[in-house]
Amino acid sequence: MPTDEKDARKNNTGEAVTRFAPSPTGFLHIGGARTALFNWLYARGRGGQFHLRIEDTDRARHSEDAVAAIIDGLAWLGLDWDGEPVSQYARRDRHVEIANQLLSDGKAYKCWLAGEDLNAAREAAKTKGVRFESPWRDRDPSDAPSGEPFAIRFRAPQDGETVIDDAVQGAVRFPNAALDDLIILRSDGNPTYNLAVVVDDHDMGVTHVIRGDDHLNNAARQKQIYDALGWPAPQFAHVPLIHGSDGAKLSKRHGALGVEAYREMGFLPEGLANYLIRLGWSHGDDEIIPRQKALEWFDLDSIKKAPARLDLEKLKSINAHYMAQLSDEAFCDKAAAFIRDAGVDLDAENKDRLKRAAPFLKSRCATLADAPAAAAFLFLARPLAIEGKAAKPLAKDGALDMLAAIDSALQDETRWQTPESLDAALKALAEEKNVGFGAVGPPLRAALTAGKPSPGLGEVLYSLGPDEARARIRDIIP
Questions:
Q1: Where are the beta strands (DSSP E) in 39-80?
Q2: Residue 130 clears pLDDT 90, i.e. is over it
Q3: What confidence score (pLDDT) does residue 244 get?
Q4: Burial readout 106-132 (b: 16 or more C-beta within 10 A, e: otherwise)
């Protein structure tokens, strides 16, 4: 339980305390990652606390691998949390305590209705179009069958309405006649979700519950439990879910994958996080929102009421910005695994070429997965296999003589200081030979890259280095 001092601090200082509470039945879904990010930004941007709670009461579906994936995914996105992750299951005794407190206060009651009798009662209420009521709500417990297990039901108000003053949705009203007496403690002694969430959020001092709008109905039930316990309810903020690009409910065919899948696809955490921020929230027309600016700008009143649409091309576009911002060393380190997976032996020589090429490759890659193709020209085995369209420039009259002249011009070591000095040497040669650059560039590019995608010629030469570049040229000329 929070102390009186903690309650006073929470209520009087305005410090934001948020939480992310995933169920460990699968990996960190892209929608869950956005929820975690929104909660983290709101708390951290106000100097508050962000907690991680694993809602692991469903032991049949519980997976420790999923817990590890959730923690790894959050850490990869740069979302840290205060204290250790909280296990909801480990707090079972506290949930039972509060269920019994509600029972003793007359805010809950024992219910022996179960099995076929329960199903029949629910069906009868549905047929009549009335709220389901357990016959044990006002029945004397002394009439209960001896020794039979019972559940504990919350005694929900029957009249009036429950109002959720939601920071995103506005005032949402629920007729109490539509909210029946939910079970808060099952007959096997296990607490149910809505009770456990209320107790945990209260005990953790949570001030703002930011989550998907699929939980909006739960908010009404949870508000009733808060009121029954005399506890202040947190500020709810229910965010519209993410849809596919076609407006349909998000599924795997739209790219609704776990965060680890985006990591394996070569997205950077900065790029994915920036994209997630913009899914349902905006700051003017800004598309690129660095983490520090997001902390400064993020607020609940800028969350849109309409569902956001997942657009993988937009994600790639934003990620490309962060790719270009990587340091050369970071690019090489991050791209190395993808290049190795493409079958390249990154020995010392190849690493050196990659390092020299990094400044020119970063802007050519939308994701790290693009790096193997962008850098392929660096790792070609000599002599290069130049075939098809790539070989045509070499077949033109004078092409081999021009390559010999280029090789001679590049003997001067001073030409190799920068890509710009190499470009200047090639242009000077074209002027000296009184030919257009079209007579210089195409055969040289074919000799150096065999038609593989590549940056400018000066950058290609600089990346390969004088020994490799001139060796490739000499493999072509007689």
A1: 49-54
A2: no
A3: 83
A4: ebbbbbbbeeeeeeeeeeeeeeeeeee
* Residue that is written with structure tokens 């079970």 in the block: 183
CA distance 393 to 95: 77
Strand partners, 308: 242
The answer to whether the bond into 383 is cis (omega within 30° of 0) is: yes
Beta bridge partners of 50: 18
pLDDT tens, residue by residue, 365-380: 999 999 999 999 999 9
Looking at residue 57, its pLDDT comes to 85
* Average predicted confidence (pLDDT) for the chain: 93
Residue range 310-329, pLDDT digits in tens: 999 999 999 999 999 999 99
C-alpha 370/C-alpha 354 separation (Å) is 14
Beta bridge mates, 110: 152
Distances (CA, A) of 177 to 157, 158, 159, 397: 8, 5, 6, 89
Q: In sequence order, which residues have a C-beta less than 8 Å from that of residue 234 and are 6 or more positions away? A: 201, 206, 207, 208, 209
> Could you give the percent of the chain with pLDDT greater than 90?
85
The candidate with the shortest Cα–Cα distance to 153, out of 169, 170, 174, 138, is 138
The Cα 281–Cα 451 span in angstroms is: 43
Residue of 252, 389, 396, 427 with catalytic role: 252
Mark whether 252 is an active-site residue: yes
Q: Where are the alpha helices (DSSP H) in 326-383?
A: 328-341, 348-361, 371-374
Q: Report, in angstroms and rounded to the nearest whole number, the Rg of the chain calculated over CA atoms.
A: 32
Alpha-carbon gap, residue 210 to 421, rounded angstroms: 56
